[in-house]
Every structure is written in structure tokens, then in C-alpha cells.
Known about the structure:
Layout: H1 3-14, E1 30-34, E2 39-44, E3 47-53, E4 56-57, E5 66-75, E6 96-100, E7 110-113, E8 124-126, E9 130-131, H2 134-143, E10 149-153, H3 159-165
Amino acid sequence: MSILQVIVAIILTISPIWPLGPNPLPGDPYIIVNKNTHELAFFNKGELQQVYPVGTGLFDDFTPEGTFTITVKAKDPYYRRKNIMGGSPENPLGSRWIGFDALETDGRTYGVHGTNNPSSIGKAVSQGCIRMHNEHVNQLFDLVPLGTKIFITSSDESFNNIAQQQKVID
């Protein structure tokens, strides 16, 4: 074993980012999105903290389902597709971007974000992202650290039942 391999092994073993034990840990911040109800639930400290109305993908397969990780957060995000600066009233991403790594992306393709079209909330309307009222995404942005898990599903179960199945709460 080379000296470099030994150093890397030691770093990975003692690193605080090394995944030891279950992930997420019970009580960690956690987001669940239910495409059936167009709602997002925020869990923290082992309890449901808040449920928000959201807009989801226009077609069922537009918003990917599964467990993902929040990898990017941005205030007044830039809208690349149409070259619209953050903070502009024409920016469809609204006031905040909380990006996650769906479908092997880097958190800049799929995200939870605000909107400049509040009437779209509560409907299947997006190209895959999860839209929220700006005041709601601003609240969530401040509560969710990078590394938070987000679980997206289409379910008839309650958020508490889904959270129990995902081992977010007891």
C-alpha cells in the first residue's frame, strides 16, 4: 500500500463526512414531496414541522421520484435557460433555489424553487422542478442545510406514514 493510499484511508475513516450509521439520522431535517397532493412536508427533530402547497411536473415522469440529496442552495438564482438575472420579476425561479441530485445531476437541473407565477402552485405545471410560493421557499431555504435528504413520491399515504416508512420518524 502506498503512502497516499494510507493517508486517504485514514482521512476517510476519521472524516466527519464519512457516512457512518443510518442516513438520515432520526431527527435530521428531511423533505417529502407528494406529487399526488402537490404538497411538500418538512420534518425536523423527529416531527412534521410544516406542510406547503407546491407545483410539480406537468407530466408524472417530469418530476423524478426517489430519495435525493440537497446539493446546491442559491438566493436570487440566475435562470440560465433564458438568461434572466436573479431578482428579476421575469425570473421563473423566484427568490430561492434548493437543488437536489436527481437522475445523476448536480443540483442545478432539479430543485425546489420559488416562482413568479403563484397561480401555478398546487398544480402539475413544471418541467420537473418543485415550485413554491416565494415566502414559503424563503422559510424552507433557511431551515434546510446542504446534505438534507428529499424524498419524492406519488402516494395516497399521509406524510407521517411516509416518514415512518423512510425511517425519518419513529
